[in-house]
TrEMBL record:
Keywords: Ribonucleoprotein, Ribosomal protein, RNA-binding, rRNA-binding. Forms part of the ribosomal stalk, playing a central role in the interaction of the ribosome with GTP-bound translation factors. Pfam families: Ribosomal_L10. Gene3D superfamilies: 3.30.70.1730, 6.10.250.290. This is Large ribosomal subunit protein uL10. It comes from Limnothrix redekei LRLZ20PSL1. Part of the ribosomal stalk of the 50S ribosomal subunit. The N-terminus interacts with L11 and the large rRNA to form the base of the stalk. The C-terminus forms an elongated spine to which L12 dimers bind in a sequential fashion forming a multimeric L10(L12)X complex. CDD domains: Ribosomal_L10. One of its GO terms (cellular component) is ribosome. The keyword Ribosomal protein applies. Belongs to the universal ribosomal protein uL10 family. The keyword Ribosomal protein applies.
Length: 175
């Protein structure tokens, strides 16, 4: 027995609601995954604030048809599709998916959508390779700290040079 029209409308409304909070969607082919493996994937990406939704392509097509930001996703809607709805730290969620993919070797990334633009597999993988937010903050802090240290050493060196110059002059006059 299939779903009722009300069930389908509720699913589409839920998808639209999730998409309003989402920054990027990655579409994967999940054929061959067991329920336990799919649960493992959901648990891995949940740590970074992402959600894995498995729904019919038709229902996702209906959910994105009025939203220009997500319409490019329609080119990936074929076969068995799972949708990784990412927000926050995109790189961490994509890295978690890549780790899962290496372990299971059963899924295939079709592409993604971000800011109204379809992304190829290579572009999605490039986002996954970016440093995390914490790493970027640490790099910036390190750069600022290094600059502050150089300034402090430079400022300290001015009076030291002046003192050495005065001492040299006084020794020269004494001799």
């Amino acid at each position: 027995m299939g779903r009722t029209l009300e069930d389908k409308q509720a699913i589409v409304a839920d998808l639209k609601s999730l998409l309003t909070e989402t920054e990027m969607v990655a579409v994967i082919d999940y054929a061959g995954l067991s329920v336990a493996e799919l649960s493992d994937l959901r648990n891995r990406i949940a740590a970074s604030g992402a959600v894995c939704k498995v729904t019919k392509n038709t229902l996702m097509r209906i959910a994105v048809e009025d939203d220009a930001n997500w319409q490019p996703m329609t080119e990936f809607l074929k076969g068995t599709s799972a949708f990784l709805l990412l927000k926050g730290d995109l790189g961490a969620a994509l890295k978690a998916y890549q780790d899962f993919q290496k372990a299971s070797k059963k899924t295939e990334l079709r592409g993604g959508v971000m800011e109204g633009r379809a992304l190829t597999q290579a572009e999605v993988k490039a986002i996954a390779d970016l440093p995390s937010k914490e790493q970027l903050i640490a790099q910036i802090a390190g750069g600022i700290n290094g600059l502050a240290t150089k300034i402090a050493v430079g400022v300290k060196e001015v009076p030291s040079m002046l003192a050495r110059g005065i001492k040299a002059i006084s020794e020269k006059q004494a001799a």
